[in-house]
């Protein structure tokens, strides 16, 4: 009887302690897996990014877009367009930060999509510059240094609002792709960007549709359906 009572007490204490232990493990797991940046790091990253004049929600913002397109068009080489696209991508992140502060979540998400597209163009120009043997060493150094600011702002966005959703995931994925592209030229670059190592964009599962079952045509009857020949 005493042994039975001791067992009951032990089970009772275990049930009381289990939820607290699980909560502690989850909190520790979240702390380890979720990257974080300080307000000072964010402010410094914004200061190092080129200034912005209008936000995308401003009626005159189209003038900024026109100016950027014309300026890029007259860049004489892929190497120069590569660096210019990097500068524009930084502006998109700075605009996104301001849009989030203004509670314009839809505009912020759209702007992250523009950031993703700009990074893709940047990588395309990098490949063109390499194929044409253009001198990109100095530009790669400046872009590599500036990417640290991109990483800080992307991590900041991760902790702000879940409504950014797929746009933010795509932006982070494209950022990693751009880093990998530069790392092929300057090996070891990836080691400088550790904040987003724990963030993995889940790949969509391929849905395999079952092939439709083709029923036999009336003119192609199966042996079991062929009419029997009646002999009188």
TrEMBL record:
Keyword Coiled coil carried by entry: yes
InterPro entries found in the cross-reference section: DUF5667
Domain DUF5667: 55-134
Coiled coil region boundaries: 105-139
Signal sequence interval, chain numbering: 1-17
Pfam families for this protein: DUF5667 (PF18915)
Keywords: Coiled coil, Signal
Protein name, per record: DUF5667 domain-containing protein
Gene source species: Candidatus Curtissbacteria bacterium RIFCSPHIGHO2_01_FULL_41_13
Organism phylogeny: Bacteria, Candidatus Curtissiibacteriota
